[in-house]
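Worked problem 6 (solution included).
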Amino acid sequence: MAATRRLKELISATLPKLDLPDGPVVVALSGGADSASLAFLAREAGHHPKAIHIDHQLPASEVMSGAAREVADALGVHLDIQRVVVGDGPSPEEQARVARYEALTRARGPILTGHTRDDSLETMLINLIRGTGPSGLLGIPRFRPPHIHRPMLEVTRSETREIATLAGLAFVDDPMNQDSSLTRTRVRLEVMPLLREINPRVEAALARTAATLGRDAEYLDRQTPGFEDSQAVPASVVLSLPRALADRVLHGVLERSGVGPTADRIERMRSVAEGQSDRQDLADGRVAVRRGAMLVIE
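Solution. The predicted structure is:
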């Protein structure tokens, strides 16, 4: 009885925090507690969700797929399993993420992922460690084009685990979450506990920082001029704008061109705009060059 009462309390507390899109939704069901509780909460909210599971065909994938099936069956949710091939690369975690998002992007949306506030704060710290601009300190965006939503960024990981447990959902923990060779795992298991010793309310402090930066970013975004051409911008615009706005313009050109925006690539594009170099390599054979008055990605 106490468990039932506690589950009702958690549902009442977490449902108002969810940022769910309207209409039918599809939950990216990993088999873990976060996505299991998201599927449960989406059903409680009356969204009649379906689910999709991405099978990475890695050593732990069979266990995760089995858990996803059990959760879907327990909730009476239709489950579509998509198998992907994870490419080679220095970071298996990153290669799995790329393959997963490619599959989710191809699927019909809106797609909901189970990222929590904890995931977003860990991303914030990882970006800070690697070196980032203000956007990297905002954590995980609520929306990823074309149709991927993260509705649980105000919900904590401890809340999702408790919900999934009390709801009787047979989730499992991904073994990769214990792999200490992965940066995110070390941040989660080593860095965050140390920060909690320094400040027991470090999660709330980081969330306040992200919220403050977010308000600043929204204002700067409104001041940044837009351009119809997805892969070019007048070099004069880059050179005449305040640096904070010029960097946003270059970030947008890189993003629309399908080249991942990084601080280094923005600097490379700026050097071409300033005439310090004729061309700069960006990624995957893409280059930044001057074509008359225009700064172009080819």
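Discussion: The mean pLDDT is 91.
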